[in-house]
Amino acid sequence: MRRLVVVDANRCVGCNLCVYACTNRFGFVGVSKSAIAVRSAGGVERGFTVIVCRACKDPPCARACPVDALALRSGGGVVLNPNKCIGCGFCVSACDIGAVMWDHESMKPVICTHCGYCVSFCPHGVIALEEVV
Amino acid sequence: MVDWVKSLSRVLYVDLSRKLFWTEEREDLFSKWLGGVGVAVQLYKEEVGKDADPLSPENAIILSIGPLTGVFPMASKVVAVFKSPLNGFIAESHAGGRAAAVMRFAGYGSIVIRGASDRPVYLVVDEERVRFRDAGALWGMKSSETVGKVLREALPAAGYRTIMRIGRAGERLVRYANVTVETYRHFGRMGLGAVFGSKKLKALVVIGRKGFRLPDVRAYREIYKEIYDLTKGAATRKYHDLGTAANVNPLNAIKALPTRNFSSGRFEGAENISGESLAEKHLSRRVACLACPVACIHLAAIREEYEDEKYFYKVENVPYDYEPIYSLGSNLGINDSYGLLKVIKAVEDEGLDSISTGVVLAWATEALEKGVISLKETIVELKWGDWRSYVEAIGYIVKQPNEFYRSLAMGVEYAASKYGGLDFALAYNNVEPAGYHTGPLFHASLVIGARHSHLDAGAYSMDEKLVSSGSTLPPPEEAAKLIIDEESWRQVLNSLVICLFARGVYSKQIVEKALRALGYTIDGAQLTELGRAIYLEKHAIKFLEGFDPEKVRIPKRVTETPTPLGHVTESYLKAIISYYSKLVKEYISKSRST
């Protein structure tokens, strides 16, 4: 199994092409369906914070889910079952690194599947897929 | 009608006088004029009367994006259209940062801001509503950087928003005040900052978190990948590496780098303030606009030791580009990179347009040198290369402690008309020129271009091509056609809206394909026709507002200082102008008769 990692956030220029790539997985453009987020670290002169799911082995988001909509993924992280999800948002609050994003249109979380589609559109080598050992 | 048009067509109207907002679906405009400048010009026609005072509530601020915004790489610019307080004509200014994509994902194709508030406000716009917030605490703040910092911390949705704001220059109606976007990008030219200031509008924050379903995902991905690969290739290499500052050395080498108020095209200190040298000594970070892999934004970090406390340092971040290096560097004789960055920083803090500021100060320096004015007027002794004196004078342009600085705040044309020294006051149509003394085509484009500089015609590069190929000047009519055709095509790019640094990527074929993937059926020939139509619409408005290109003053200095193509002659420029004038007048009378 592989997981998405931030190799070097210092190389990030804030173009958000990873974010757009992620939303595009669902046939959308924009930011609403992205499981990756980039924001300035308090002004762009300080660089950027790149937020990705780190594929926890023991994910707090899954434990916070009251309806078992988040199943453990082999290799870390979780898989969302949208049919079970009631949109309570507990998973979002449970993730201290902020990697459970929220789709304001479907009112459900956006969960990274570690597919790596974003990696192919990062022009500066900020993110990569890594084998989980 | 394609769905994509529908998704783009929502126009947000904000009335600052009545503190009201509403949206209208304007498919009529977005289906005919694409978006960007095409749509903004039509909205301008609806909003701003030909006699409206630019600094009155009758002026409007129109921001527009286009069908490719936030959708394809480097479709990263917002077009602002408004009446310029410098000359009273329709003006256009573009900015990058996060503004364009955020507007798209907030769900607006255009934002129209009307009227004026009676007290300082800032606007927070999101997908559903507009909040009018009290800007009393922000008004008069020393640095526009601090304004950004305060708003960043006070407002939600970090990473999904854009923060546009003015500095004190805009509040005090300096006619060439700018609007800063995300700290280091700007609606730089033509005085949009003063228009914000006249409306008591300190900042405009937009928050956008939406997504839009694509009509044809497969076609989209295919053309997306093609564009993405191109934007990482040779077409943008220059902007990627050294940024626009890469122009300093080559322009200096051909003697086209305006120096000491355009008295020379060669600056002996150019090497020190070149892109290469700035990168080596000061470059600290590279930043991109949203959706741009190039990251042309170059930030320098400068360190200054406190005089009263050893080993305590102030570190400042300063963006640099070719234009401020010319206007505040070579044009002021500054060959010290640290000093240049300090001057740029002062201009940034106050929220001034760097080109106009540099040209105004260069004129003042020469006027002082020649005795046209005295220290009584300038307060500080302005001397070529003395960056500290310029930092001080920049403060005075904003504070306006005397009649002289009140005049400087109106622009160089105004100041020189009042104090003398018009021969060396560099301005066309009251607008200070960008930094290319390459030849007559560039200077002609400043008179006949709808915008303010090289941007809509790239005529400096036409000059450069003539230089490098050793060709003679084309007949004026041909030169006019070259400029007008290029400007017409760029209306298409500016309606999509793509960054002009990607103009080499977005060929007609690529634009056609990109639009087709979104459901548009417009073909290359129709695009060309549309570009010409937008061009003529825009220029016709300017004429109806009283613009007479034949009366534009050609600064004597321009004809005195040789360019790489020899001396610019007034007769050649006049011939180009007259061809252009005839074309626009014919269009006006034709459209009147239909």
Word description of this protein:
The complex is a heterodimer of chains A (133) and B (594). With 133 residues, chain A is of the alpha+beta class. Chain A contains three helices and nine strands. Chain A has helices at residues 17-24, 60-64, 90-94; strands spanning 2-6, 28-30, 37-40, 48-51, 70-72, 78-80, 101-103, 108-110, 127-131. In chain A, the strands form four sheets. A two-stranded antiparallel sheet of chain A has the order 1-9. Chain A starts with a strand and ends with a strand. Chain B is α+β, with helices and mostly antiparallel strands. Helices cover 43% and strands 14% of the residues of chain B. A six-stranded mixed beta sheet of chain B has the order 2-1-6-3-4-5. A six-stranded mixed beta sheet of chain B has the order 8-7-12-9-10-11, with helices on both faces. Chain B has a three-stranded antiparallel beta sheet with strand order 14-15-16. The longest helix of chain B is centred in the last third of the chain and has 24 residues, at 570-593. The interface between A and B is large, with 30 and 43 residues. Strand 2 (28-30) of chain A pairs antiparallel with strand 13 of chain B, so a sheet runs across the interface.
Radius of gyration of chain A: 14 Å
The biggest sheet of chain B amounts to:
6 strands, mixed
Helix fraction of chain A by DSSP (H/I, runs of at least 4): 10-25%
> Are there runs of chain A of 5+ residues with pLDDT below 50, and where?
none
Tell me the overall shape of chain B: globular
Give the amount of beta strand of chain B, in percent.
5-15%
The order of strands across the largest sheet of chain A is 1-9
Which structural class best describes the helix and strand composition of chain B?
alpha+beta
Mind sketching the topology for me?
The complex is a heterodimer of chains A (133) and B (594).
Chain A: E1 2-6, H1 17-24, E2 28-30, E3 37-40, E4 48-51, H2 60-64, E5 70-72, E6 78-80, H3 90-94, E7 101-103, E8 108-110, E9 127-131
Antiparallel strand pairs in A: 1-9, 3-4, 5-6, 7-8
Chain B: H1 3-8, E1 10-15, E2 20-25, H2 27-33, H3 36-47, E3 61-64, E4 78-83, E5 90-95, H4 99-106, E6 110-114, E7 121-125, E8 130-134, H5 144-154, E9 161-165, H6 168-171, E10 179-181, E11 185-187, H7 192-198, E12 201-207, E13 211-213, H8 217-231, H9 237-241, H10 248-253, H11 275-281, E14 283-287, E15 297-305, E16 313-320, H12 322-328, H13 337-350, H14 354-369, H15 375-378, H16 387-399, H17 403-408, H18 412-419, H19 440-448, H20 459-469, H21 476-496, H22 508-517, H23 524-544, H24 556-560, H25 570-593
Parallel strand pairs in B: 1-6, 7-12
Antiparallel strand pairs in B: 1-2, 3-4, 3-6, 4-5, 7-8, 9-10, 9-12, 10-11, 14-15, 15-16
